[in-house]
Amino acid sequence: MEIILISTSTVKVETSPQPISKIELTPWDLRLLPLETIQKGLLFHKPKPPQETNSLIQHLKTSLSRTLCFFPPLAGRLSIIEHEDNTSSFSIDCNNSGVPFVHAVGDGVTIADILEPIYVPSLLYSFFTLNGVKNYEGVSKPVFGVQVTELVDGIFIGCTANHVVADGPTFWNFFNSWAEISRGFNVLSKPPSFNREFLDGLDCPIRIPFSIDHKKSYLTSADPLHLRDRVFHFSKEKICELKSRANAEIGTSSISSLQSLLAHIWRSFTRSCDGLHPDQETCIYLAIGARSRVKSIPQQYFGNAVQFEATTSKVSDILERGLGYAAFEMNKMIALHTEEKLWNSFESWIRNPSPMLEKLDKTGNLGTSSSPRYDVYGNDFGWGRPIAVRSGVANKSRGKITVFPGAEEGSVDIEACLPLEILQAMASDAEFMNAVSI
């Protein structure tokens, strides 16, 4: 099995002039400069009756161009100004440089080859373009890319987005919008908002101590070669059981389904790591969304509006004090993040800016990304719903936990990136696997 490149082209915004020409970046955007892109893709059955390949590819290019009319930053590039005080300021230049569109064929590759193996096959990583690109490279490289890979019986649409330009909600709003345009819509159900009024009164553009000339010092140390990905599926019923158990153990009703599920994974991961001392600290990084907490930020805000925070505990407490304890520790940390706290952190970062470096590649740490609330399976391009979602190799590091909604309503898929021996130990963990639906 191999991936054969058929063509590469550049898709630009269909109309002009641009509705927006420049976007100033915020602390939530800028701290992601050293990291890699967002890579998520959807697997579909081939259209029935089969469409002529060139016609289908051309349709996707045309609908992509029309969608970019509503999302012009994705067809642009990052702009950098390096100042005399050794600081730099970045913005998004909506210059319509375009989006690379790659058409490829998976020779002999079937849907079963992607979904049936216990571990996600590394071949899937070649279903994405712009592999290995760091976010700061968006100054000279595309900030968004698309690859459509034909399989024997399916189609995979993979998108790569510069994480400085977009976060998860922005990424999936674009994907949803592209699917709408592909189905023939002329108006989006959820058009993006480029409102930056919450930056009024701040000294913009924000200057940070970041130089592309010194980029080697910003490279992450994670080595993905010794890691594997495995997708664990949790049904709605099993998640409800975990939630009931966690709340009952603490005597509360405030612990959410997701907190209960992540606590379940955290505990199994901790049990499965050899050599952890009972007094050693273990932590799980969570994404705290600002859209629902900061009133001045629109729900369809284009950009990053999320803050990453860690819940930390002793190994012995995670292992001995039960599911409810681990879940409630996360619950308490999240509850602290009021609008006032988020805004104080935002302004504090402006006074003392520093790009975020990868913190996950450490024994005992987990980090979550994505959300089960994203409309993944509503992405119908005109020939039916997707059958699976997968992520690319970007930002893969030890302990990365990617959360997706499952194909069945209320279910959740967890894509865990860990050393093989830890994944094998978790698969042998009876308490953990009791909640996993095969």
From TrEMBL:
Gene3D superfamilies (alphabetical): Chloramphenicol acetyltransferase-like domain
GO molecular function (one): transferase activity
Domain of life where this protein originates: Eukaryota
Spans through the membrane: none
Keywords tagged on the record: Transferase
PANTHER family per the UniProt record, alphabetical: FAMILY REGULATORY PROTEIN, PUTATIVE (AFU_ORTHOLOGUE AFUA_3G14730)-RELATED, PROTEIN ENHANCED PSEUDOMONAS SUSCEPTIBILITY 1
Protein name: HXXXD-type acyl-transferase family protein
